[in-house]
């Protein structure tokens, strides 16, 4: 099966599980084990491609949601962004507050 035909992690994992079972057979000839190893490496690369594709799609969706008018934006994306922004702001404020406390105690 061509690597591009694996469209999901579940399909990839299923095939990798089959390979693991086959390689665990002590009677498996070395040339077949090597062939299965090479296939497994290719499957790992395909999994990496799927992961990058998912990250890219999520980034595009997030960018589109942030550019949409307030009434049309997906509400589920806003709390995550707001929480991340609040966390970053809290770090910046917390750091300044801690420095001020350290200076006051000296």
Automatic annotation (TrEMBL):
SUPFAM superfamilies: XseB-like. The keyword Membrane does not apply. It comes from the Bacteria. Keywords: Cytoplasm, Exonuclease, Hydrolase, Nuclease. GO terms for molecular function: exodeoxyribonuclease VII activity. InterPro entries: Exonuc_VII_S, Exonuc_VII_ssu_sf. Residues 66-106 are annotated as: Disordered. Its EC number is 3.1.11.6. It holds the Pfam family Exonuc_VII_S. Residues 94-106 have a biased composition (Low complexity). GO terms for cellular component: exodeoxyribonuclease VII complex. Gene3D superfamilies: Exonuclease VII, small subunit. The keyword Membrane does not apply. GO terms for biological process: DNA catabolic process. Belongs to the XseB family. This is Exodeoxyribonuclease VII small subunit. It comes from Senegalimassilia anaerobia. The gene is xseB.
